[in-house]
Amino acid sequence: MRDPFEKNRPGLGLGRDPVRTPMQWSDGQQPDFSTAEPWLPLADDFMHCNVSVERGDADSLLALYRRLIQLRRTEPALSVGDYSALPSGDDVMAYIRKASDRWLLIVLNFGAQARSFNLNDRAILLLSTRVDREQEELSGEVSLLGNEGVIVALS
């Protein structure tokens, strides 16, 4: 154990060492942010799960975060808008974010099975956790694959 909290309060099992690894910037044995030896072991998948690999993959978690951040910067409803939960079920969470006359619907499917969510009007899919769906025109419902989330601009 190297975690300062665990060293100061030993035996409680509250240290973070067993669940953390250094940030992997590349597939090298060094995490690439320092020349020092990391005090925690590298993750087992560091050769293919690192920032260098994810930068070139449009489907990566890094790419999704960048798309989400960009959309949040351009859509005030996502940063300062009002929040309203919507009734949903079967592993689905849905809510509205509204700023001025801009209404965004966020639908998250937390289950492995495909689900759909009814729309009252036409809409444009602004962002999906699946890259191939963005800017899709929707009418009547939005269909989601398992574990998919979408942000939809309502008319």
Q: Which labels suit this protein?
A:
Immunoglobulin-like; 2 domains; 155 residues; 6 strands
Characterization of the model:
The protein is 18% helix and 32% strand. The protein is an alpha+beta fold. The chain has two domains: 1-55, no CATH class; 76-154, Golgi alpha-mannosidase II (Immunoglobulin-like). The chain has a six-stranded antiparallel sheet. The relative contact order is 0.11.
Class from secondary-structure proportions: alpha+beta
What does the radius of gyration come to?
Answer: 20 Å
The second-level CATH architecture of the largest domain is Sandwich
Biggest sheet statistics: 6 strands, antiparallel
Helix content bin: 10-25%
- The CATH class designation of the largest domain is Mainly Beta
CATH superfamily of the largest domain: Golgi alpha-mannosidase II
Number of helices: 4
Number of strands: 6
Secondary-structure map:
Layout: H1 4-8, H2 51-55, H3 61-74, H4 76-79, E1 82-86, E2 92-99, E3 102-109, E4 115-128, E5 137-144, E6 149-154
Antiparallel strand pairs: 1-2, 2-3, 3-6, 4-5, 4-6
